[in-house]
């Protein structure tokens, strides 16, 4: 028991993340944090596009990522990025997201090192209801600027960046409410 408590304390100090007794590591639990300071919006404006998005806490203290994806001016995506101190994920197999979507498809991205040019991605569908989405880290594959790379899937060693992106090749309004993001 002491070893688990000590490991958890080290994880908190190094990453700001918390491991519970079930072996889950909480990356974000918005109901227990009222800050979005370490979340950054990155839209297609970096390439001349006109999509707009934001992330805010709602009255239930959940994060809400919302906006409008525009295809004008070669646009087509909106995203939100969360960077944190390196998180050892050797023992983790799944990303677990507690969310309420809008029936649209989203992409989850992780980076082992925030300076990497490529991300490891996978997709998830939302139902319009509260749901728990589980994504296998080993199923996340490497991409750069929308192209799949000839590299192995995610190795599961560490993560220091996580992003959520919407890019369905259509102009659309979107809204994704997040309660928590965990590793198991």
Helix residue percentage: under 10%
Shape by Cα distribution: globular
What's the CATH class label?
Answer: Mainly Beta
CATH fold naming:
Jelly Rolls
- Uncertain spans, ≥5 residues at pLDDT below 50? 1-18
H/E series: HEEEEEEEEEEEEEE
Number of helices: 1
Mean pLDDT score: 87
Question: How big a fraction of the residues is strand?
Answer: over 45%
Structural class call reads mainly beta
User: What about the largest sheet?
Assistant: 7 strands, antiparallel
CATH 4th-level superfamily: Galactose-binding lectin
Give me the count of strands. 14
Q: For the terminal residues, how far apart are their CA atoms?
A: 19 Å
Task: Provide a brief overview of the structure.
This protein has 184 residues and is mostly beta strands. It contains one helix and 14 strands, in the order αββββββββββββββ. Strands 1, 2, 4, 5, 7, 10 and 14 form a seven-stranded antiparallel sheet that branches. A seven-stranded antiparallel sheet has the order 3-6-13-8-9-11-12.
């Amino acid at each position: 028991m002491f070893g688990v408590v000590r490991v958890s304390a080290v994880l908190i100090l190094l990453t700001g993340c918390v491991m519970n007794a079930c072996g889950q590591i909480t990356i974000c639990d918005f109901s227990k944090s009222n800050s979005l300071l370490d979340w950054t919006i990155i839209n297609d404006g970096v390439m001349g596009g006109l999509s707009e998005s934001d992330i805010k806490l709602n009255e239930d203290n959940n994060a809400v990522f919302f906006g409008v994806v525009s295809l004008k001016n070669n646009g087509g995506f909106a995203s939100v990025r969360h960077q944190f101190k390196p998180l050892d994920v050797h023992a983790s197999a799944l990303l677990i997201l507690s969310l309420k979507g809008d029936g649209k498809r989203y992409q989850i991205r992780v980076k082992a090192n925030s300076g990497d040019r490529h991300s490891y991605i996978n997709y998830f569908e939302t139902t319009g209801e509260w749901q728990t989405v589980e994504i296998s880290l080993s199923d996340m594959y490497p991409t750069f600027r929308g192209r799949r790379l000839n590299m192995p899937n995610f190795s599961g060693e560490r993560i220091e960046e996580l992003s959520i992106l919407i890019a369905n090749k259509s102009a659309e309004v979107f809204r994704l409410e997040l309660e928590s993001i965990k590793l198991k």
